[in-house]
Design goal:
The complex is a heterodimer of chains A (246) and B (291). Chain A has a single domain, classed as MetI-like (MetI-like fold, Orthogonal Bundle). Helices cover 84% and strands 0% of the residues of chain A. Chain A contains 10 helices and no strands. In chain A, helix 3 packs antiparallel against helix 4 and helix 5 packs across helix 6. Chain B has a single domain, classed as Rossmann fold, CATH 3.40.50.300. Chain B contains 7 helices and 9 strands, in the order βββαββαααβαβαββα. The chains are: A mainly alpha (246), B alpha/beta (291). At the A-B interface, helix 7 and helix 8 of A face loops of B.
Chain lengths: 246, 291
Amino acid sequence: MILVFRLGFLAFLLLLWALAAQQMGGNVVPSPKATYLAAGRMLGEGRLIRALGDSLTVFLSGYALAIAVGVPMGILMGGFRVLGKTLEVYVYALAATPRVAFIPLIIVMLGLGVEAKMFIVFLGALMPVLINTYAGVLAADDELIEMAQSVGAGRMRVFRRIVLPGAVPFVIVGMRLGATIGLINTVVAELYTSVKGLGGLLAIYGNTFRMAEYFVVVLMLSLIGVVVTESLRYLEQRASRWRIVK
Amino acid sequence: MHRSDDGPDGRPVSVTGGRNPEAGIVFDAVGKSFAATRGATPISAIKDVSLTIGAEQFVAVLGPSGCGKTTLLRLADGLIQPDAGSIRIFGNPPQPGPDIGFVFQSFRLIPWATVAQNVEFGLMDLDLTKAERADRVAQNIDLVGLSRAADAYPATLSGGMRQRVALARALAPDPRVLLMDEPFASIDAQTRELMQGELMRIWAQRKSTVMFVTHSVDEAILLADQIVLLAPRPGRVVEVVNVDLERPRWTFDARAEPRFMELRRHLAEQMRKLVLADPSSEFFGRDFVPH
């Protein structure tokens, strides 16, 4: 049922788009049909796929690195209170600083290549993953912890059997937020460093007023966003099946 | 902290506090204070509490709110240590683990674990083979009548069923001591009565030493061999009453017995007095009994 509504809304959006194209002319807003044809051309040339591959490489590797660092660090900070209390101020300060501010520094350090792009993505995705994991560990249910202690569980067991599983939903929320920011940072990185990938195509088509091709790239980026967040949402539902009251 | 037979200051522990194999749970002049916030002056939760619960006895600890009932149970489980006095469980200092089962008022089931996994959690500290473990789990789920819900998650169960799971978890390691903290207080009245009957049936099958905390006079009389009445702020023992009603009590309407009514009248009157005399109570100083 919700699928029907969603498709209906999509039709509505397409209609708006077509109207806008008609009103403003194809040079500013290309018609859906022109965009569709441009997509066909770009796919035929292989240009779109190559750019997509480049962007996904940067995004996925930076994002994976952010999870690989953020989750264990959040767990450590939550598990060792002194460590957490010491570091949290700096983590929050870093999270509040616009990460774009670091781009010139990153370029000086790592150049304009893939490493620099990956690092920009990593830096963006790290914070939500780390902060949510940390919050998840801290949010552990004290009553369940006491229950586990009364059963005879030591510190390690309490942590493994009660604290960590309880933090899973938080971690997944952090991963979802991190994916969104990581995707934004992928495009930002491709615009600011060597012009490559989907962000590069955006710059090229935007600067040369090839709006149909430009729209194809924008839609491609939205599509990646939908796929990534929806798969994480699915993961979240799988991981919290126990919450659902039948 | 290591404890020998002698008290902390080298004096021998009193007769009730010694290694009496017949005594299941012994509190000897136990005191415990808590600070509301860090640095604040500690407030005495219980003071100079001495009581003895015989092996395989069912003792209800009765008292108005603020009398440190939950503190007593946490002390008896060894989850916290007393500031004064000593506690013995079958002659040894209390140690959380499979020897002592704890049933909480708020159930405390692991929400991401099924009924069977929750019950198995109680066996964590025992050295069992996989088959033995599964066997124990099945047995105890059956004991509380939940065999059909073994794979359900707690969120799908009613309050009464959740408390059955918590009871099965506490009973699974076959503990010598069972501590129960107002286990039926958050269950609706009708289910509560049925659960009381269930508890009596199970206790008749698996005799363990039970310390059952409640603020319900009726519940205390229905279930217990002996009732320890506590006064609030700080919690201290006022009176110990033996319940001389015959067992099993759930097979007839024990409430209609004259002896039940007599005990009820006495305990209810005592409870009322304690509440009216408690400066922290909103009923302090009120007297609504017509003269």
